[in-house]
Amino acid sequence: MATFLYRLGRFSFRKRHFVALFWVALLALAGAGAAGAPAAGNSSFSIPGTEAQKAFDLLDERFPGASADGATARVVFKAPDGQKMTDPGNKAAVQDTVDELSGGAEVTQVTDPYQGGGVSQDGTVAYASVTYEVPGMELEESSREALKAAAEDARDSGLTVEIGGDALQAVPETGSAEIIGIGVAAVVLVITLGSLLAAGLPLLTAIVGVGIGVATITALASTLDLGSTTSILASMIGLAVGIDYALFVVSRYRAELAEGREREEAAGRAVGTAGSAVVFAGLTVVIALVGLSVVNIPMLTKMGIAAAGTVAVAVLIALTLIPAVLGYAGHRVRPAGEKSKLLGGGRAKDTADKPNMGTRWASFVVRRPLAVLLLGIVGLGAAAVPAGSLELGLPDDGSQPTSTTQRRAYDLLSEGFGPGFNGPLVVVVDAQGSDDPQAVFQQAGDEIKALDNVVNVAPAAPNKAGDTATIAVIPDAKPSSAATEDLVHDIRAAGADIKDGTGAEVLVTGATAMNIDVSQKLNDALVPYLVLVVGLAFLLLIVVFRSILVPLKAALGFLLSVLAALGAVVAVYQWGWLSGLMGVEETGPIMSMMPIFMVGVVFGLAMDYEVFLVTRIREAHVHGEKPAQAVVTGFRYSARVVTAAAVIMIAVFSGFIGSSDSMVKMIGFGLAIAVLFDAFVVRMAIVPAVLALLGAKAWWLPKWMDRALPNVDVEGESLAAHDGAADKDDEDKELVRA
Q: What is the pTM of this model?
């Protein structure tokens, strides 16, 4: 591995024009594809194998032309104080709005509140439902403007009018905070590398990699049904790892220059050593992201594969484009320890051999390993405590900020019709095999009415064939409550009894039932996912470190950091701690896919730091240093760079907290805090403490396994032969000169 990458690094350095042209051409090709592709829509959300999805598919089959996946809007009206929505003037204003909306180009149906039971019992609130023929993200802007204009006309009559539903759904924006994150990364790179040019290289190459990845996702979005969130998450992860991977190669290149090597040789050795760590670190991230497919939720699978593709591009760029641009930079990228004149270079140093911060910290940990280990575990354990109160759900209009019209419409409907009105259940009765379908429909409705926590059961609405019907059920509690979840299970239990007696199938769907099924599916998949991803990565790390205990320690440390990060997410987004600082306007259940997504991404990123840090420690140990001294040596060379990489990743992830999308906002915070815990507590404190306590036992591997495993040579031992060859070449040159 090291020898191959060494040759690749030297080739990229020498043939830099060809390598640079290749990546620029790839970026241009991806950009052209993205420019000519249709805009990304909202990825169709399906959960195969669940009852809610089965019912949804049945509706598509038995109710053709109903636009089951079409956008919907609820235009909610509230009468002025002291008036009723049934007053003639208010009624006329609502009728005008219904007539105006009915003429929309993409509108399939508008329900009149006064004919469809859309007026509250006290008469103060009414609503009109609007159904469109296309999903929310595919609506023409003219349709959205027409919806807003109709609401504004109704407001002119003195009514309070708000709009709920997904018809106003927009592509999420990340905000200016993302730019701030990149700015912080730039400052950290300048401080770490001591040169504006050297700092610019990781940023430049990472942006190229993210550009290729996001442009490719955009180009394929319509074909592969990739949602707009997919590209945002891919850019979030791709930018963070792209900068980190490039930073490690550039830092190793400068270290090789400081040892007196020629620039081409330094580039080859940087790619052969740091590049080997990049390859295996990238593999762990890719395994974790692609492994999300085991959950069998297409949207999550696509997000994981798209992000994994962007990470793979970041790895390839670190191995090829970085040595190429280092060739262009020439002598302007200085050896480690030297700064440019602009940043204070050229001044006399006070102490030539003063230990750096990494050396001092590692020496402290090696002297007091048990105390550091216990303090780190207790601290992360305390941070993880809120995770015990984790409540899962999927965001709806009730989780939006109160400043939005969707949230105000949600609140008006709760006020006028009860909290359960915003989460109606759709019961689908398939009586195709029954002798008397109408009797089955009546029986199903009667049994549902008899259940607890039911406010209203609408009459069955059969299809044209008369063999399938839908029954709308309004729960007594809000959609995300435990009582509503219990009601869904009670309806399904009653449906099983009906099937036993009549052969008819009763299925529950709707957004609320879909959320319940998603949460259950994700919970069921979490353990198999952990076993698969952690197991594969564990085997990979055994090959890298040639040890059993080091990969085991890495996996246990990851569990600590991810639990602590989940605890922080619960504290902020569910309990409301520091909610003002984080821009959280509404607390509530944690997004259902957050735990499994965090497990996947954080595991991959945690193994990044594990590989970068521990390979340098093992390199020192392989070259003859005692275990404790190897820890100190590893930190002397890598702690500064790992710290910088972690700060950069935290800054990039934190930038996405400014997104307008609640899912992206929560993931950005969760990943940022997880990197903080994992890099600074687990990898920089717990890892050296455990290695110091284990001593030489840390690198124990059964002899039979040592013989069976391939030698991937991450530490670059095989490159010593190239040193010998280089020395011989130097001697020959000296003889020729003599």
A: 0.78
